[in-house]
Every structure is written in structure tokens, then in C-alpha cells.
Amino acid sequence: MAKKLVKEYYSEQGVKEWRRLIRDPYHQLEFDTTMHFLKKYLPKNGLILDAGGGPGRYTIELAKLGYDVVLLDLTPELLKIAKNRIKKAKIQDKVKQILQGSINELSIFENHKFDAVICLGGALSHIVNRKQREKAIDELLRVAKGNAPIFVSVIGRLALLVTALVHFPQEMENKKLFRGYRDKGDYHGGYGFAPCHFYLPEELRESFEKRKVRIIEMVGLEGLSSSHPKETNRLFKNNPKAWKVWWETHLKTCTYPNVIGISEHFMIVCKK
Predict the structure, then answer these.
(1) 3.40.50.300, 3.90.1580.10, 3.40.47.10, 3.40.50.150: which CATH number matches 2-271?
(2) What are the boundaries of each domain within the chain?
(3) N or C terminus: which one in the chain shows less Cβ crowding within 10 Å?
(4) Quick one: how far is CA 43 from the chain centroid?
């Protein structure tokens, strides 16, 4: 049922999801920070799996950088957008496959197939069932070659609580709903967003550590800007010199444990 609701939600988002990461400077922080760390840790070339890659924003960017990419996502409508955007970008030769599927079932791929695996934007968060989330992590690791980097970003729980305080205080009146995502991180849908598990950083780290992978880095993708979109956008627009300093500050602080914890999205980078 949760998978169906996720598919329905993103089917309705369509172009909005394609534009989400570039709609304003605040949202672009997630994209730019992710790309910064992808460039830092990806091999110089190779085949990358973009698991849960939606309309293909990262697939296209990586293909432009010369990587071969396989794009997989649950939602046909988003993959249709991806196909059109890939054609428009004229990088069809670098995108080897565009496949519909779920990140917790990658049996179409053999073991140790990819030189890197990315699962970004919260695709893992949209699996509410814990056992299925754990299976998804196993699958993402299984299809990666030995020593291949794996990048997984999720949606943060503490930032959600701040968002509830600022924008949706009425949700606290629904004690079952609010306590569900406050205490367990679980949101089952029905109130304007797809079903989702909101992570704590230590929870994500533990899921990978117990699989004996090497954790390279954890990153708060919006960092200190989290929950401050108006201020972030205003700084970018009105003071370019200050923005350069803020971007520098962001990169210096986004790996601090406390900053990761308050970020709307955060990412783990590891190697098998």
C-alpha cells in the first residue's frame, strides 16, 4: 500500500519534481552539495546506478561528466520526463538503461556490477517498512563492486519537527500523527506528502556500519541553512559576495555531526 501511495504522489508531482532541486537557491543547496561530494569521491569513470533517480536530474549531470549511467525509478511518469530530458541534453549514449523498479528489489542486476551506486533525494526514506528499507540497503551494496563508493541521502527527522513548528503546528493536535514521526520517524501518508521514514543520522550510520562497510563521510545537504529558505534565498539574491562566503561556510560545516542532524536531507558516503 505504501509503495502505491508513493507512486501516486510522484506521478502527480511530475515536472515539479524535475524542478525541485533548482527551483531556488535554497533547494539548489541539496543538489550542489551532493554534486560536490559526488565529484570528490566518484571514480574517474565507470558505470553508475542511479537508484530511485526519478526524473533523472543526477543521471543527466553525471552523464555530462562522462559517466555511463543506469537510471531506475518506481514511477513511470518520472521516467518519461527523464527520457525526454536525456534526449534534450543529447546524452542518450551515456544513459545505458532507463528502468522501472524499486530500490529494494534489484534482482535484474548481477552482483558487483556498478563502479558506484547513488540513491539520492530520499528514495530510501520512502520505504516506511523497516525490513524493506534494510533489504534496500543490502541490494544497493550487493550490486556495487568492491571498493565502489555508495551515496545514499535521506530526509531528516529533526528538520521535519522544526518544519512542523513553523509551518504545520496544527499537526501537533493530531497526537498519533505527530508522535508517529517524532518518536519513530514514520509517516504513513494522507496529509500532503508520500509515505516516508524520517531518519536520525545515527540511525542511518548504524544501518551501514553493521554491514561492515567503511563510512567515509556524512553530510548535511542544506546544512546551517535548513529551515531558513527565505533568508537563504534573500542572501543569494541581494548579496553575491556574502553568498560566496556562506557557500564556503556551508562546505566547512556541513559535515559537523550537529549540522547533519538538523539538515532537511543528509547523505552517507561509504565504500564496500
Answers:
(1) 3.40.50.150
(2) 2-271
(3) N
(4) 20
Cα distance between residue 238 and residue 56, in whole Å: 31
**Residue 185 is which amino acid?**
G
- Quick check: 202 and 161 in contact, CB under 8 A? no
What is the tens place of the pLDDT at every residue in 13-58?
Answer: 888 999 999 999 999 999 999 999 999 999 999 999 999 999 999 9
Q: Which three cell numbers stand for residue 47?
A: 558505470
Query: For the chain, where are the E strands, in sequence order?
Result: 47-51, 68-73, 95-100, 116-119, 149-155, 186-187, 196-197, 214-220, 265-271
Cα–Cα distance for residue pair 152/204, rounded to 1 Å: 9
Task: Give the residue among 212, 225, 211, 208 at the shortest CA–CA distance from 268.
Answer: 208
196-245 tens-digit pLDDT:
999 999 999 999 999 989 999 999 999 999 999 999 999 999 999 999 99
